[in-house]
Each structure stands twice: as C-alpha cells, then as structure tokens.
Amino acid sequence: MISRRGVLIAAGLTVLPSRAVAAAAPSIVKPLPASDFIVHGTNAETRWEALRDAGSLVPVSKFFVRNHTSTPVLDSAAWRLRIFGSGVARPLSLSLRELRALPSCSVEAVIECAGNGRSFFSSQQGQSVAGTPWALGAVGNARWRGVPLPVLLRLAGIRRSAVDVMPAGLDSEYVTGGVNLGRVRRPLPVSKALDDVLVAYEMNGAELPFDHGYPARLVVPGWVGIASIKWLGSLEVSDVPLHSPWDTQYYRLLGPDYPADGSLVTTQVAKSAFELGFGASVPAGRQVLTGRSWGPGGVRRISVSVDGRTWRRATPVSRGGWTRWQIPWQATPGSHVLRARADDQPDVSPYNTQGYLFGAVVSHPVTVA
Ligand SMILES: Nc1nc2c(c(=O)[nH]1)N[C@H]1C(S)=C(S)[C@@H](COP(=O)(O)O)O[C@H]1N2
Ligand SMILES: [Mo]
C-alpha cells in the first residue's frame, strides 16, 4: 500500500484542503467540493442539484462514497483475487493482468445504499432510526466493465453443491463499539452470483477510482449497495451457508412488524428524486422540472404532483440504469411541495429500526420567488 499523501502528491493535488472542499472526509481520496457533496462522517452523498447538468452516467467526481472505514490505496502489482472454499474444485489466485485478460462485458447499473433516504423516516414519518442520515443522494449510476462472476466461478470449478459466495474487501477491519467485525464482507447466494454479477475493474470507461474499489469490486445490480463489495480481495465459495455481521446484524429489517431476528435485505425499492436542492429557490414562470427514478428491474410510469392533489405524467428523457424525466411547471410565487412517484411508490415506508429501504414518495419543498 502506498500512502494516501503520496498518491495525492503524485496526482498533483494539494494535500491541504482547498476552500472549495467543504468538510474533511479523510477517509475519501477524491476531492469533495461542497457544491457536489454532503459529507456524513466517512461517507459523502451526492447533491441532487449537482446532477441537473449531468447525463445518465454520474461522473466519478460526483459519485457518492460509502466507506465503513477509509479508502485503501492498493498496489495493483501486488493485488490478487483469490477464489477458494468447499464449493470450488480448482481454487484460483488471479493477478489484475490475468483478470483483465478474461472475457469481459459492460453493464450500466445503479449502486445505491440500503439506507438511501433514511433521513425521511424521521423528517417525513416522525420515526427515529439508526444510521447515516442520508437524504436521497446515496445512489449513482455508472457503466461498469469487468468479468462476469459466473465466468470466474466456472473457471474455479464451482460445484453443484455450492450455496453461498462470500466476497471480502481489502479495506481495514471494521471496528464499532469496541468490537472488531473483521473485513467488510457479505454472503451472496449462488443463484444471484451466477446471474448478473460483475467483478468490475472499470467505471465509466476508465480504471476504477480508488474510492470506488480499485483495482476491482463487485457490481450486484438491483441489490443494496453493501452487496457490491469494493477492493475485492477474495471470494469464498461454500457448500454450507456463510454468514457475516453484514447479513446477521446489519442489513436486516428489524422492528415490530418483522420476525424477531428480522428479515434479510437483498433487493432495492423504487425511488424518485428531483434534480433540485431541498428548499431550493426557483424563479417564477414557466420552468422545466427534471428528475430521475430507479428501481430493481427499472421503472415504467413516473407521475409528478406540484399541488399535493393532482398528478401529471412526466416525460422520460433517457433510460438505462435509471430513468431521467422532465415535466413543465408554471411556477407561481410562494412555497410549494413537489412530489414524484415511480410506478407504485407508496406514501409511507414500512418502519424498520435501522431505516433501510425508504421507498415512499418524498415531499420536496421549494420556494418560488
Ligand atoms: N470493502 C468494502 N466494500 C463496500 C463498502 C465498504 O465500506 N467496504 N461499503 C458498501 C456500501 S454500504 C455501499 S452503499 C457501496 C457504496 O459504493 P460506492 O462507495 O462506490 O458508491 O459499497 C459497498 N461496498
Ligand atoms: Mo450502503
């Protein structure tokens, strides 16, 4: 591992935060200008107003970062991906060069934290939940290139008896409340691992950036972000079920409406967002409201309400990992609440103590002056 400071200097970046960098997030390597990000501890969420002029793919410079600890700057020459366990006949250890020589494909896919929208449990539903108080910016869409995981698992001779794959990251072990939970890792059922999962080494046509998993990460389309393990170092394939704190303690729906040991969080729920800041000021007159909606398997119908009573269809602008849309609005001076709904997004999200999967329609306040 080379030092973070060394990398910043090598990249010609100043080590002292410039004035445009709002809050220090020493866990993240890339710059976090206040115009594009809201920093929450070791994490940074994208401001939706910063996506207004972005295309369907979120540029790396604006892509949210969720780090349990901090971005490791890994040496690709020393890096190996190990595939081992009772579920494979031919354990493997691949260098980056060997990985890149395998058949690859590219997919456009959203990565979204299970806790995206968590802050609305309290601000909109009056419920208190634990975890990073994300607004709606813990999501991004990118084009990922890499080796399909089924290709790697077959190369390692996956057995018919295999049930789980445990990807583990090479970032530091995660210590919380004085307990060391070990490397960030989370079991993935073989059924999903053999479906549409990618071991990605490129993001938006360039090498994977340090903060997003360099030199390789999983991309698990449609599933909560924790499935897409960054800085991938190993894949244990097992013929008995595997567990980690990330499937037994975190990423479970817990609370009065769930079984005592909770229910496992796997796929995401649909969401919609306007490309506007919360409480943004909008000029009076004819405006075009823009936004994006997404969900596992895509979204079909997007409706917008500007008066809390009536709904109009928005016009799709582009499809892909998510759907961009627009709708005209005759904005009159005063306070307004905008709402966008994709398909069957509910008005209320089921409560769970850790605030996962907030999928309700969000009330977005704006002021027209
Ligand atoms: N090794 C490792 N992988 C990880 C994480 C992490 O902290 N360490 N965070 C996970 C979580 S919770 C999310 S939401 C996504 C975020 O991906 P991004 O930072 O590239 O946006 O990475 C996942 N993969
Ligand atoms: Mo996450």
The CATH homologous superfamily of the largest domain corresponds to Oxidoreductase, molybdopterin-binding domain
Q: Based on the structure given, which CATH architecture of the largest domain is correct? A: Alpha-Beta Complex
Low-pLDDT regions = 1-21
Report the sheet with the most strands, covering strand number, pairing sense and barrel closure: 5 strands, mixed
Give the strand order of the largest sheet, numbering strands 1, 2, ... along the chain: 4-3-14-7-10
Rounded to the nearest angstrom, the radius of gyration is: 21 Å
The N- to C-terminal Cα distance equals: 52 Å
Cofactors, ions and other ligands in the entry: the ligand Nc1nc2c(c(=O)[nH]1)N[C@H]1C(S)=C(S)[C@@H](COP(=O)(O)O)O[C@H]1N2, molybdenum atom
**Under CATH, the topology of the largest domain is which?**
Sulfite Oxidase, Chain A, domain 2
Structure commentary:
This is Sulfite oxidase. Pfam families: Oxidored_molyb (PF00174). Residues 1-22 form the signal peptide. With 369 residues, the protein is mainly beta. The chain has two domains: 1-266, Oxidoreductase, molybdopterin-binding domain (Sulfite Oxidase, Chain A, domain 2), CATH 3.90.420; 271-368, Immunoglobulin-like (Sandwich), CATH 2.60.40. 9% of the residues lie in helices and 32% in strands. The chain is built from six helices and 25 strands. It has helices at residues 4-10, 96-100, 119-125, 149-155, 190-193, 245-248, and strands spanning 37-40, 43-46, 81-84, 92-94, 105-112, 139-148, 164-169, 175-176, 179-180, 188-189, 198-203, 206-207, 217-219, 232-238, 252-253, 263-264, 271-274, 280-282, 285-294, 302-305, 312-313, 315-318, 323-331, 334-342, 364-368. The strands form seven sheets. Strands 4-3-14-7-10 form a five-stranded mixed β-sheet. Strands 5, 6, 11, 12 and 13 form a five-stranded antiparallel β-sheet that branches. It binds the ligand Nc1nc2c(c(=O)[nH]1)N[C@H]1C(S)=C(S)[C@@H](COP(=O)(O)O)O[C@H]1N2 and molybdenum atom. Molybdenum atom binds at residues 66, 113-115, 225-226.
